[in-house]
Description:
By secondary structure, the chain is of the alpha+beta class. Helices cover 26% and strands 23% of the residues. The strands form two sheets. A two-stranded antiparallel ribbon has the order 1-4. It has a two-stranded antiparallel ribbon with strand order 2-3. The longest helix has 18 residues, at 21-38. Keywords: Heme, Iron, Metal-binding, Monooxygenase, Oxidoreductase. It comes from Actinokineospora soli.
Amino acid sequence: MERPRGAYFPFGLGPRACIGAAIASAEASAAVAELCGRFRFLPAGRVVPRPALSLQPAGLRLSAVARQRA
């Protein structure tokens, strides 16, 4: 299902934009970095490319494998 162009603004726009957008983005980056440090993410099946503005995986599913701590 396609969203209409301009329908997704997670932090809003203009004078009523979320004042916490920068900190939320920084926290999301830190969370992804922490997860990537603790787990390896592997494709759970065949990855099929889907042409869009750039190639994107269609229906990508990942499995997480814990990394060994030294």
